[in-house]
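Deviations from the work plan: none for this task. Representative record:
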Amino acid sequence: MIVFDGVEKRFGDTVVLSDLSFTVAPAEHVTLIGPSGSGKTTILRLLMCLDSVTRGTIRVAGQELTGDEKRSRQVRRRIGMVFQQFNLFPNMTVRGNLIEAPTRVLGLSKDEANARAVELLDLVGLREKIDEHPSRLSGGQQQRVAIARALAMRPDVLLLDEVTSALDPELVAGVLALLRDIGETTDITILCVTHEMGFARDFSHRVMMFDGGRVIEDAPPERLFTAPEQPRTQEFLKAVLGR
Amino acid sequence: MIWDWDYAIESLPALLRGLQVTLLATLLGSLLAFALGLVFALVRRSRVPVLSQLVWAFVEFWRSTPLLVQAILIFFVLPGFGITLSPLTAGVVALGLHYACYTSEVYRAGIDAVPRGQWEAAAALHLPRSRVWLGVVLPQAVPRVVPALGNYVISMFKEVPLLLAIGVVEVVTVANQLGAQTFRLVEPLTLAGVLFLLISYPASLLVRRLERRVGVL
């Protein structure tokens, strides 16, 4: 589904990703872990075309992301992203946030988009908030709306960028439960950057440990969290898990 | 000099007619400045460097020259190029162009204040460029700059008397004409000043109230 082939990303002289190659299979859930600045979020931003690669290629469903504009636009539409800071549009209601892209990009009628919005708000448990503005919602509610907004575009690939990092601790569990539910009930390919190791462990099919812009360990969670091979992974897990 | 109340009252209807012209010039000039300022701000962000630099150069040049010179240029020089405008139209164009250079900076600041995450969320939803601007960025940027725009409207209102130079019969022109006819300038000019005060002070209070509300979307 997703192929990174010799990808390098530099910001000026700083190398953020270096000769990075990996693949993600359809419907696979991959969690990217590692210290801050190790390049995890950059991977999601490259996939979302918010940044461009310095060298190498990224392919999604066989289509190069940076290739022919018209064809790459088609494949880009199959990717959705949820941000750490939610980034809901404050000038729109929850309904407006959910129907904007489906009507403008997918060409759904307002009724169709509205029905989809209600269905998704039921999924995230916020149907009664449909006509509220984001500023009237808690952080956890805003993030659940942001997840619903990304799902409204019916993505094949969902990118989750530290979606619980900006939340109060008591709101984290609700969002993670929602993501688990989505992971179990859909066949969306999910790439997730998180510091929630418990979530990474039971949500992921694979965990990739990053350091210095490279993947230093790539393993199923049950192995990576119990018997990491690399000393750097052991050190990182010891620091974040406190053991 | 003795204040003559009878003469003052007698002058008032003509001054109020002049005030109507002042308000009309302010209103039309503001609308032009708001629209053109937005166009300038958007072109300044254009991906075509030549276009953005041309607008930048024009804005810098026009902002650095006096409104009076610009009004005279538009009214007296443009006819030489086949463009003849009435005094009021020339005045409105001068005001609109001059203040557009300032409002473009105001819009620019408002657009820059929209968090980067909003642009990225719009990109992540694959919204077309027109919707990113019209549906996401401008609805957030414009409310933030309304007080600043309001301040420019008040400032423009107080600069309309400069159009006296091109024959726009606004309130100060009327006061001058009355003074020329009667050789008494104190009453009409004082009343003209009071009329400006009566409008610009409440307007500035309104702008201050708006400033307090900005940020609540």
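The radius of gyration of chain B is 21 Å.
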